[in-house]
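User: I'll paste a sequence; please echo it back and then give the predicted structure.

Assistant: Echoing your sequence first, then the prediction.
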Amino acid sequence: MSLTVCLAPANTVGYPQGGGHLWVYLNWALALRAAGCRVIWLEGVDDDVGDTSVAHRRRWRGRDVRECVATLQAHLGRYGFANALALYSITGAPLPADLAASGLTLEVAADADLLLNLSHALPESAVRRFRRSAFVDTDPGLFQVWMTTGDICVAPHDVYFTIGETVGTPAARFPDCGLRWHYTPPPVFLAEWPVVRADPASPYTTITHWWGGTFEFAGTTFSNEKRVAYLEYADLPSRTPARIELSVCLGQQYAEWHQRLGALGWGVREAWEVSATPEQYRAYIQASRGEFSCVKPYCVQFANSWTSDRTICYLASGKPAVVQHTGPSRLPDAAGLFRFRSMDEAVRALAAIEADYERHCRLARNLAEEHFDGCRVVTRVLERALT
């Protein structure tokens, strides 16, 4: 397949300590390259370091833009994409000469056969430059609500994909925005995620953020906070002999939550200490016995049938996963992957895995190969996007 694909991630340059965030897009890029494509990695930058707006502070977290670009280039270089980075100015102003020289330009990127856009922030002026464009929704339900309420305005694309299995179907409890959505599983590049046997004493783990606030839709308040979901299962460690550890981005509140959750039997780690680079993130997952994870409450309320890009990395590594049920799915509920609706179901899932651990490790890897193999996923996406 001799194609050039421009991949537009959601702000990997502004999140240099997000190893897991970067893997979302590395899995796409590596699979595209394995499928025979040339990959261009398109990122927006803002060189106005004097800007004190809330949006600017959130995007760059007080860091120097050039340091962020250099960090991203170093990460990409380890996976053979050192010369793939293309930059554009999110303000529309010309890039400073030094930033323009540090990567490809938008003009070069726009000559690609396809824009594969995973960022709702990519401006319409950039999208229009491409002869063919495909949008990939990675926040099913929330994204469609944002579009409906006008909180975001996504440029028109030629085709729309989503990783939520119910999006655009009667099973979804949220609007489709009048668009035709094509389901695609999130990809994992299996060659970079081999099966690794962990120490039997290793805990079930996950890596997550803690806060996210609430949002209003159709007269109802919905929670976007993992904290809320996990606290509903706060007593789980007392109900199972399995060790469970949360790696959470807690910052200055780490000590408070370490003490609070630790008293209930949870292991607690600061996520940025165990997953700041792609390599650390992968190593942490592969040293785990499996995954235990809750979801943001709105995922359950919306029945978006979402599967985390993190969970598929556990599965590929041969790690059974116990995750909260988010709606009807092609995936099993109790074979390598267990999807729970209650405390009792979570307890039974961990017990079932421990009773036949090696089998569930094999089933986990089989699920990754059958449903999430990156090369097959991107091939199907390209076929649909270029038709």
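Residues 49-54 have pLDDT under 50 and may be disordered. The radius of gyration is 20 Å.
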